[in-house]
Specification:
alpha/beta, Rossmann fold, ten-stranded mixed sheet, elongated
Length: 607
C-alpha cells in the first residue's frame, strides 16, 4: 500500500519547491495545549526527575490551566500555585504550543536578566532541541540566549528590572514567571507588568500568562487572582462519600504531640463531609477524578481567568510531607512565611495588620487559673465540637460587661464536659460558683450535640454560626427531634460577636467593660484568640462590609470559637443588665444595756 501511494505521488511529477510550498500551506493539527504536549513534549534531565515523554495524566489538574490558552475569548491567565505542582512546565507547554501551532512574537519576563539567561540555557533551549516539532522551526545559529529566533516568530527573554527590554518591541504573547519576585518599579517608568502588557496593544488575539507563588495580598499574582472574571479551584471527590472538596491544610491530621518524623509517617487527610480517613494511596484517584469549578465574578464572557492550587495536590508530596514541613517552620517566621506562600499558595499576612497575641497577653490580671474575682457574678462556658474531641473556655462576667477568663482546655469525651459543667469555681473570697449557661457549637456531630443539650436542658444550648449577617446578634429556632418538646437552637452572627470581643480588648485591663485573662495565661490561648483578622469586603454594588477571616488556613481558631459562644451565653443571660452590688450602710447600734432597771431607756419624766 505504501509503494502504491508513493507511485501515485510520483506520477504528479511536481517540482520539489512546489511540494515544499504546499507543505507550508498545510494547516496545523487541531490540538489543545495539553494534547500537543502529550504528543510532542519531551522532558529533559535538566528540569525533571522523570525525563521522557510528557504525560498530562500524571498531573491532571494542569489540563484545564493549559487549555485555557486555546480559548479565543480568554486573554489573561493567572496561575497562583504552590511548589512541586508543575506550574512552570505548564507555562513551557503553552510556549511550545505557540511556536508549533499558532506563532506570534513572544515576550517572556523573569524577575531578573540573569534568571532569564539561565532559564533559556537550562530549560527552553533543551525543550526546543528535544522536540522535533519545535526544532524544525528554530534558527539556532541566528539565536542568542536572550532572543530565540524561529522561522515564523521570535522569543525575547528579558528581566523585569530592564525597562528597555520590556518596552522595546511588540508582542502577541507575554509570559510572566514568578511575578511576585518582580521589582515594583523599573527605573523611572511604570511597573514591569504594565510595561510588558503595553506591548500587546496591536494584537487583537493577544495572550498574557502569569505564573507564580504568592507573597503578600498586594503582590502581583494575588491581585491577578482577585481581579479575575472567573476564579477556579480544583475539587476532588472523597473516595468514601463522594463529596467534592478543595484540599485544605486544616484537614490534614496527625497526633497532637508528634514531632516531624512521627507526623510524616502518621499524617492523613480527613474528609470534611464524612470525616473518613483519606491516605496517600487515594491521591492518584482523587487527582484523576477531580475537576476545576469556577466562581464567576463579573457578567459577560470571561476575558481574565485565574486558577489556584496548593502543594497538597502534588503527586510528589505526601500528606505527611506537608505536616512535617509545617512543624519544622511554625516557630520561625521566615520559614513559616515560606510554608504559607510556597506550599499553601496563600499570601502572608503581616502581623502588624492584625491583632497580635501580645495584645491578649497584656490583659493579664493578678488572679489564678480556675478562680474568679469577687466582683464577677455569672459564669458561662463556650464549647467548640470537633470530630473526636472538644475545646472549651470558661469566662466570668460582671457589671458593664466586664469579663475574666477562668479556664480553658481540650476535652476528649462527653463525660469530661459534664465534669466541667458540674465543677465548683471559687472566687478569691472563697465563695463557690457554678456554670450558669453553656453554649455548644452544633456544626460537628449535630445529633449528638442535640441529644446532649436535651439531657442538660436549661444548662447547655446548641448554637450555629449564621451564613449571612443577622439584624440581631442571634435568632432562635426550634428543633423538633425530641419526645415531648422542641429543643431551642441559637443561630448567631459570629461577626457581631467577634466585633464585640475585639472592641473589649481596646479597654485597659481591669477597667469597667474590659476583657481580661488570668495570670500566666498560655501563649497557645492568646494565639488562637488572634487567629482571625477583620477585613473589609465590597460587593458588586459597591457596598462595604466587614467580616472575620482566618489569617491563614493553618491557624487554629477553636478557642476563638469558644469565646464567641461565651459572648452569646452572656447575651442570653442578660449580662449587660448586671448592676454593681449596693454598698451596705452601717446601721446605728443600740446603746449597751444598763445595769439598772431603766430598761426602756427613758428618763424619769416619761409620763
Amino acid at each position: 500500500m505504501a509503494t502504491r501511494r508513493k507511485k501515485q505521488r510520483n506520477e504528479l511529477n511536481y517540482p520539489d519547491w512546489i511540494m515544499n510550498a504546499l507543505a507550508v500551506l498545510k494547516p496545523p493539527e487541531k490540538l489543545t495545549v495539553s494534547q500537543w504536549a502529550d504528543k510532542y513534549r519531551i522532558l529533559s534531565e535538566l528540569d525533571s526527575a522523570a525525563p521522557g515523554h510528557w504525560r498530562t495524566s500524571k498531573t491532571p489538574y494542569l489540563q484545564k490551566v493549559m487549555d485555557a490558552f486555546n480559548d479565543d475569548f480568554v486573554h489573561d491567565i493567572t496561575f497562583c500555585a504552590g511548589t512541586q505542582l508543575g506550574k512552570t512546565s505548564a507555562e513551557q507547554n503553552m510556549i511550545g504550543y505557540a511556536i508549533a501551532q499558532d506563532p506570534g512574537p513572544m515576550l517572556v519576563v523573569y524577575p531578573s536578566k540573569e534568571l532569564a539567561k539561565f532559564t533559556s540555557e537550562k530549560r527552553l533551549q533543551p525543550l526546543i532541541k528535544l522536540s522535533p516539532e519545535l526544532y524544525k522551526h528554530w534558527n539556532e545559529r541566528g539565536s542568542t540566549d536572550l532572543e530565540l529566533t524561529f522561522d515564523t516568530m521570535y522569543i525575547a527573554l528579558v528581566g523585569a528590572n530592564s525597562p528597555a527590554g520590556l518596552s522595546s518591541r511588540p508582542a502577541r504573547y507575554v509570559f510572566f514567571d514568578e511575578i511576585d519576585k518582580f521589582p515594583k518599579w523599573s527605573g523611572a517608568e511604570a511597573g514591569p507588568l504594565d510595561l510588558a502588557a503595553e506591548r500587546t496593544k496591536t494584537f487583537y488575539n493577544f495572550k498574557v500568562v502569569k505564573v507564580s507563588t504568592p507573597t503578600l495580598k498586594t503582590g502581583n499574582i494575588w491581585q491577578g487572582w482577585e481581579t479575575a472574571d472567573v476564579q477556579y479551584k480544583y475539587l476532588v471527590p472523597c473516595p468514601h462519600c463522594g463529596g467534592m472538596q478543595e484540599l485544605e491544610f486544616k484537614q490534614i491530621k496527625w497526633p497532637e504531640d508528634a514531632d516531624e518524623t512521627e507526623a510524616r509517617a502518621a499524617a492523613y487527610y480527613e474528609c470534611k463531609f464524612c470525616h473518613e480517613i483519606i491516605d496517600d494511596r487515594h491521591k492518584p484517584q482523587l487527582l484523576r477524578e477531580g475537576e476545576w469549578r469556577g466562581e464567576k465574578k463579573s457578567k459577560g464572557r470571561a476575558r481574565k481567568v485565574a486558577f489556584h492550587l496548593n502543594s497538597i495536590y502534588s503527586p510528589w508530596l505526601t500528606f505527611g510531607d506537608v505536616a512535617a514541613k509545617f512543624l519544622s517552620s511554625r516557630n520561625d517566621p521566615p520559614l513559616l512565611m515560606n510554608f504559607i506562600n510556597s506550599w499553601l499558595a496563600e499570601p502572608w499576612v503581616d502581623k502588624s495588620s492584625r491583632m497580635q497575641s501580645d495584645v491578649v497577653m497584656e490583659k493579664q490580671l493578678p488572679y489564678e487559673r480556675g478562680t474568679m474575682p469577687p466582683q464577677a457574678q455569672l459564669l458561662t462556658m463556650g464549647i467548640d465540637v470537633q470530630l473526636d474531641h472538644f475545646w472549651y473556655s470558661v469566662r466570668a462576667w460582671g457589671p458593664h460587661l466586664t469579663s475574666w477568663l477562668v479556664d480553658y482546655g481540650r476535652l476528649e469525651t462527653w463525660a469530661d464536659i459534664e465534669v466541667v459543667l458540674e465543677r465548683n469555681f471559687p472566687d478569691t473570697n472563697g465563695e463557690i460558683h457554678n456554670i450558669n449557661l453553656a453554649c455548644m457549637d452544633s456544626g460537628y456531630n449535630t445529633d449528638e450535640v442535640f441529644a446532649f443539650c436535651a439531657h442538660h436542658l436549661g444548662l447547655v444550648v446548641p448554637t450555629k454560626g449564621a451564613s449571612n449577617p443577622l439584624k440581631s446578634r442571634y435568632q432562635v429556632s426550634v428543633i423538633d427531634k425530641f419526645d415531648g418538646f422542641g429543643l431551642r437552637q441559637y443561630l448567631m452572627d459570629t461577626n457581631q460577636l467577634k466585633n464585640f470581643i475585639a472592641s473589649r480588648m481596646s479597654i485597659d485591663p481591669g477597667a469597667a467593660g474590659s476583657w481580661n485573662v488570668y495570670r500566666d495565661v498560655d501563649r497557645e490561648y492568646c494565639d488562637q484568640i488572634c487567629s482571625e483578622q477583620r477585613v473589609e469586603k465590597k460587593d458588586k454594588k459597591g457596598r462595604v462590609t466587614t467580616g472575620w477571616e482566618p489569617i491563614s488556613s493553618h491557624a487554629a481558631n477553636h478557642l476563638l470559637d469558644c469565646e464567641t459562644n461565651n459572648a452569646l451565653a452572656a447575651e442570653l443571660l442578660g449580662v449587660r443588665y448586671l448592676m454593681e452590688p449596693e454598698e451596705e450602710t452601717e446601721k446605728p447600734q443600740p446603746a449597751a444595756d444598763s445595769q439598772d432597771d431603766n430598761w426602756l431607756d427613758v428618763d424619769d419624766n416619761w409620763l
